Amino acid sequence: MKLVVQRVKNASVKVDGEVIGKIEKGFMVLLGVTHTDTKETADYLIDKLLKLRVFDDENDKMNYDINKVGGDLLIISQFTLYADTSAGNRPSFINAAKPDLAEPLYEYFCSECLKKGIHVETGKFGADMKVELLNDGPVTIILEK
């Protein structure tokens, strides 16, 4: 599993021109699933994500996690994170999990974050989505296991 985490001032996702997810301060997370991922993989990365100390404290040091600042999550499924560009110019997505594995793990990831008290907004798995965000910093972190 691979996460691209962006600290944002705000972010939203549209499907067919309609906003289906929107947050203010927090993380916009692109989430990719590969063939070997499990709920245990998701649990590990949820713990890392929610403890990631990249929000500024009163001294402008990245010292606070998302809980401390009352931030939200916008989680978007993103199979292209597993693009393989080693041969030629057209990416291969053979390392991305098929939807029958990826979608339940994506839904599990989102629901577990919600269970931990974080406000979660989502995209729509497999849809053509338009994502807008105001990256804060910019701060972008890649988490994977």
Summarize the structure.
The protein has 145 residues and is an alpha/beta fold.
What does this structure look like?
By secondary structure, the chain is α/β, with parallel strands linked by helices. It has a single domain, classed as D-tyrosyl-trna(Tyr) Deacylase, Chain: A (3-Layer(bba) Sandwich), CATH 3.50.80. It is 23% helix and 40% strand. The protein contains three helices and eight strands, in the order E-E-E-H-E-E-H-E-H-E-E. Strands 1, 2, 3, 6, 7 and 8 form a six-stranded mixed β-sheet that branches. A two-stranded antiparallel sheet has the order 4-5. Helix 3 (99-115) links the parallel strand 6 (72-77) and strand 7 (119-122). The radius of gyration is 15 Å and the shape is globular.
Helix-strand string: EEEHEEHEHEE
Outline the low-pLDDT stretches. none
The helix tally amounts to 3
Task: Report the count of strand segments.
Answer: 8
Residues in helix, %: 10-25%
Secondary structure topology:
Elements: E1 2-15, E2 18-23, E3 26-32, H1 39-51, E4 55-56, E5 62-64, H2 66-69, E6 72-77, H3 99-115, E7 119-122, E8 129-144
Parallel strand pairs: 3-6, 6-7
Antiparallel strand pairs: 1-2, 1-3, 1-8, 4-5
